């Protein structure tokens, strides 16, 4: 397994040996090593390296507790609260189990000091009993560090909780770590984008998916560099940026300032203000030597920097700003630069500008982080193909279901309704038994009676999970179910009760890794900040995963009144065409950026993309009144209109496959994704 993880981590052979190892290995040290291997494989499959804050915004709360019971896996009980050692995984040995090893460091009746995260939403581990991660101190010594140094525990990789990180540092070390983390996350124009990329998941999502682009190419300079740069300058400006710009403009004019000090001041201005940086870059591109101006090159460059900074500040004001202070600072910068340009009193012009900015915000409200039009258009495009995918496979399902009823006497609609009811009943019963199990683990000490009750509950839960409903029928029934699964694996069809695997399968490619990071967040204020700029798909997915109310979804009739709905005899409805190929072709035809949708330039050379049925996305359905759109949708969803099309999934007489290529890909992708999600969740729960 270890070798395969290094050389072939995404092969069936690796998955087979991984599953065998998970079921057969019992040695704690090997289990820990397996967890590290799975984490390494998960990291290889990621497109992003996220650097969430570990020091900034985190703190510890200390209190003394008395130990009432020592438990397995580095846990102990104090009253009704269960704590788990943060940052360390206790190891058993040939003579002692994990409970006995931990018992050499702490014991029942002992008073110890525990340090838990001061954020109540971050304290609880994601395990079955909701234990609290804690650093444990005895006579001022960190028990976890002692156990790691003695070989009785391993450092738990991936544990970035406050007790695991902060409890290792003294005051000076915390100060250095705090400053270093702040500096690493500073959004410096060009440097942050090209080299550093030290971003939290939310910072990365906003920089790459909302205000920027995930991939930059000199083949498309406007889409990759220029437009995203201005959009980010408009939206990611802060009050601090405005204050630095104002300080630069006034300090630059202080008499007697040395050239070196002026250069240092100018560099700080350019590296803190994205708009100023853009202006300086444009100035040097237009006239590298400043020869087109009588003033020295430096004045030429910095004049462009000030003007462009003022333009982006004005754009920031018009898009709503982040607060009244932010709006005032940005508008002050605009007014001050206008005053400088007309050689008026800059201070008075700045004050007038600030007043206008505050008045604008008061009149038009708090727009906050308004979404750029480019991003909204991309989301609309993705939604369009998601809906087409749903319509296509729902139509094929209806056609196959009719065949199943005619030739195999199977009423799939009735059977699926019964199965859905049974699945929901089993889910509710399983949740109830799991809640009982959690209460037993948390509130009752080890005893034979508790073990017997736990065993009974486990048997009930396993029986419910293995309770599968066998469906009658033959190949048409199986074909219909495959089509149904493909239709349900879309964001449009996603509904309450969907598993994480189903959610991730339905999500657009660019949103999947962010979902895995965001879904761990428990703090309501942080969740609100995420949803503030999340795509409609990510909002729906996170709302389902968090158990929140799902945002209203526009119906297809209204949506396709704005967008061209292909005719019922469009070739792309046929099963042999993959709508992903059609999507790539359409992105190119619409002069959009492939990277914005998770595709690559090389895919344009794929014969399947070249030969994909064409689609007029920019076409309008104005000629289709609401009644016509409703009629077309009804025809498609009823499984009508496709003539002389083989919808079976069996090989034809010549051996050629007439299967639904796209849905098979979807199903395979679902299985692979499910494995990766399960591995990730196992690591997160460890």
Keywords:
single chain, 686 residues, mainly alpha, OB fold (Dihydrolipoamide Acetyltransferase, E2P), 5 domains, seven-stranded mixed sheet, two-stranded antiparallel ribbon, disordered C terminus
Q: Care to describe what's here?
A:
The radius of gyration is 30 Å and the shape is flat. It starts with a helix and ends with a helix. The strands form two sheets. Strands 1, 2, 3, 4, 6, 7 and 8 form a seven-stranded mixed β-sheet that branches. It has a two-stranded antiparallel sheet with strand order 5-9. It has 29 helices and nine strands. The chain has five domains: 2-44; 60-179, OB fold (Dihydrolipoamide Acetyltransferase, E2P), CATH 2.40.50; 233-364, no CATH class; 373-410 and 473-574 and 638-686, no CATH class; 419-470. It has helices spanning 2-7, 12-24, 28-44, 98-103, 143-150, 162-166, 171-185, 191-196, 201-210, 221-235, 239-251, 259-272, 274-286, 297-318, 324-341, 346-364, 373-408, 412-443, 448-465, 475-488, 500-506, 509-518, 524-533, 536-546, 556-559, 579-589, 607-610, 626-637, 661-685, and strands at residues 60-66, 69-70, 75-78, 81-85, 88-90, 111-117, 132-138, 141-142, 153-155.
């Amino acid at each position: 397994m270890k070798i395969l993880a290094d050389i072939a981590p995404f092969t069936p052979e690796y998955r087979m040996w991984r599953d065998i190892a998970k079921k057969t290995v019992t040695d704690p040290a090997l289990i820990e090593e397996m967890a590290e291997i799975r984490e390494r494989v998960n990291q290889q499959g990621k497109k992003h390296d996220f650097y969430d804050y570990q020091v900034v915004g985190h703190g510890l709360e200390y209190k003394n507790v008395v130990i009432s019971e020592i438990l397995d896996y580095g846990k102990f009980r104090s009253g009704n609260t269960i704590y788990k050692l943060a940052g360390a995984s206790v190891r058993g040995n040939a003579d002692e189990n994990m409970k006995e090893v931990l018992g050499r460091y702490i014991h029942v009746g002992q008073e110890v000091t525990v340090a838990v995260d001061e954020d109540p939403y971050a304290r609880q581990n994601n395990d079955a009993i909701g234990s609290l991660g804690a650093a444990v101190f005895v006579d001022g010594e960190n028990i976890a560090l002692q156990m790691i140094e003695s070989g009785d525990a391993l450092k738990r990789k991936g544990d970035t909780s406050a007790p695991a990180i902060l409890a290792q540092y003294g005051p000076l070390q915390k100060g250095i770590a705090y400053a270093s983390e702040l500096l690493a996350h500073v959004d410096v124009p060009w440097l942050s984008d090209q080299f550093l990329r030290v971003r939290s998941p939310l910072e990365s999502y906003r920089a790459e998916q909302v205000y920027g682009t995930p991939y930059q190419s000199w083949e498309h300079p406007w889409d990759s560099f220029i437009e995203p740069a201005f959009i980010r300058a408009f939206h990611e400006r802060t009050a601090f940026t405005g204050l630095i710009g104002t300080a630069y403009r006034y300090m630059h004019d202080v008499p007697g300032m040395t050239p070196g000090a002026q250069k240092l001041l100018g560099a700080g201005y350019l590296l803190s203000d994205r708009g100023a940086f853009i202006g300086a870059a444009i100035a040097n591109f237009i006239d590298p030597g400043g020869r087109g101006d009588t003033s020295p090159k430096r004045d030429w460059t910095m004049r462009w920097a000030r003007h462009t900074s003022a333009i982006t500040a004005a754009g920031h004001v018009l898009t709503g700003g982040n607060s009244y202070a932010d709006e005032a600072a940005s508008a002050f910068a605009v007014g001050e630069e206008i005053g400088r340009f007309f050689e008026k009193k800059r201070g008075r012009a700045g004050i007038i500008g600030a007043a206008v900015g505050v008045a604008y915000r008061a009149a038009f409200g708090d727009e906050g982080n308004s979404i750029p039009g480019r991003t909204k258009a991309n989301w609309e495009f993705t939604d369009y193909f998601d809906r087409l995918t749903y319509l296509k496979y729902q139509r094929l399902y209806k056609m196959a279901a009719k065949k199943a009823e005619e030739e195999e006497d199977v009423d799939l609609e009735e059977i699926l309704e019964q199965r859905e009811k049974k699945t929901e009943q089993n889910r509710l019963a399983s949740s109830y038994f799991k809640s009982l199990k959690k209460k037993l683990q948390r509130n009752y000490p080890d005893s034979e009676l508790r073990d017997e009750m736990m065993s009974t509950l486990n048997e009930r839960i396993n029986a419910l999970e293995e309770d599968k409903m066998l469906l009658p029928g033959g190949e048409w029934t199986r074909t219909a179910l495959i089509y149904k699964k493909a239709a349900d694996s879309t964001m449009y069809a996603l509904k309450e009760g969907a598993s994480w695997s189903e959610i991730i399968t339905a999500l657009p490619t660019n949103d999947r890794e962010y979902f895995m990071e965001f879904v761990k967040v428990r703090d309501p204020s942080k969740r609100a900040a995420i949803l503030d700029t999340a795509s409609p798909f990510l909002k729906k997915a996170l709302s389902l995963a968090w158990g929140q109310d799902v945002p209203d979804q526009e119906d297809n009739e209204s949506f396709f009144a704005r967008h061209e709905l292909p005719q019922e005899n469009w070739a792309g409805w046929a099963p042999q065409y993959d709508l992903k190929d059609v999507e790539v072709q359409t992105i190119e035809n619409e002069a959009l950026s492939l990277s914005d949708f998770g595709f690559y330039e090389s895919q344009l050379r794929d014969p399947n993309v070249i030969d994909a049925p064409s689609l007029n996305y920019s076409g309008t359905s104005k000629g289709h009144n609401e009644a016509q759109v409703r009629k077309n949708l009804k025809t498609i969803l009823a499984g009508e209109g496709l003539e002389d099309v083989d919808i079976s999934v069996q090989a034809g007489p010549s051996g050629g496959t007439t299967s639904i290529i796209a849905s098979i890909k979807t199903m395979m992708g679902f299985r692979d994704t499910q494995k990766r999600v399960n591995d990730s969740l196992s690591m997160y729960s460890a």
